[in-house]
Amino acid sequence: MTHRRTARLVDFHCHLDLYPDHAAAVAQRERERVFTLAVTTTPKAFPRNKELADRTKYVRAALGLHPQLVADRAQELLIWKEYLPSTRYVGEVGLDAGRRFYSSFEQQKSVFAEVLSACAIAGEKIISVHSVRCAKVVLDMIEAKLPVGSSRIVLHWFTGSAAEARRAAEMGCYFSINAEMLRNDRSAKLVHSLPKGRILTETDGPFTRGESSEGAPADVKPARDGLAKLFSLEHEEVDVWLNENLRALLS
Ligand code: MN
To answer: Which of the pair, 211 or 150, is modelled with greater confidence?
Structure first.
């Protein structure tokens, strides 16, 4: 049997660099063997994230340009493109049609279109995608810009309809699920309807509740425990299940 770096837990969307001590947050994830996709909100944050992640077994740095920052930072797309060849992981990218960010929606769409096109050309990227109040547009763009099978999409904190979730699953998307989603009956029902092979956990820390202790990264156990409850499984069974999904996604 080959020796695998089996993680204890999986946090496929966390902003480790937004904690007071970034290096300590990375070190904690490594020590606790939590496979963590450390997403970034601006490409300028990527080099430091990659430097820290490259010294670990369990942390990966993703290259992002957050849709909520596009109004002020669209020109950083040039930096984003410059770093793309140095990473397999992209995020946080996507669209936000919420009231606060809707004024930049057209600009967000042009940035996201370029992000997807660049990923399509580069190939084999794993992309953590934000889709607040615009699941349909996000899926339309992915369908139009990203050839099936080239790169893989993980929809982070998906809040679209059941029909949109089904469509996303048919397109091959994965879903990273946080504890907040499982506290809400409507979205828990949606999570229950997803193909089990497409589910991962996330914290979206520090943007969700569940900070374990002062300054430490959010705990992903509540998400894992929530899935166990929802699917009537033991915690250990969920860990095996999520590790299998992670392995399939990364393979
Ligand atoms: Mn996020």
So the answer is: 150
CA of 15 to the centre of ligand 1 (A): 7
Task: Answer for the pair 123, 86: CB distance below 8 angstroms, yes or no.
Answer: no
pLDDT at 214: 66
With a cut of 90, say whether residue 245 has pLDDT above it.
yes
Place of tokens 């992309």: 127
The pLDDT tens digits for 137-191 are 999 999 999 988 789 999 999 999 999 999 999 999 999 999 999 999 999 999 9
- Exposure string over 175-186, b if 16+ CB within 10 A, otherwise e: bbbbbbbbeeee
d(CA 226, CA 224): 5
CA distance 249 to 199: 10
97 alpha carbon – ligand 1 mean position (Å): 15
**The pLDDT value given to residue 63:** 98
Rounded to the nearest 5°, which phi and psi values hold at 90? -125, 135
The domain limits of the chain are: 9-250
CATH 3.20.20.140, applies to 9-250: yes
CB under 8 Å to 3, separation ≥6 — which residues?
none
Q: 208 CA to middle of ligand 1, Å?
A: 9
Please list all protein residues whose beta carbon sits less than 5 angstroms from ligand 1, which is an ion: 92, 204
pLDDT at site 3: 45
Residue 47: what are its φ and ψ, rounded to 5°? -55, -45
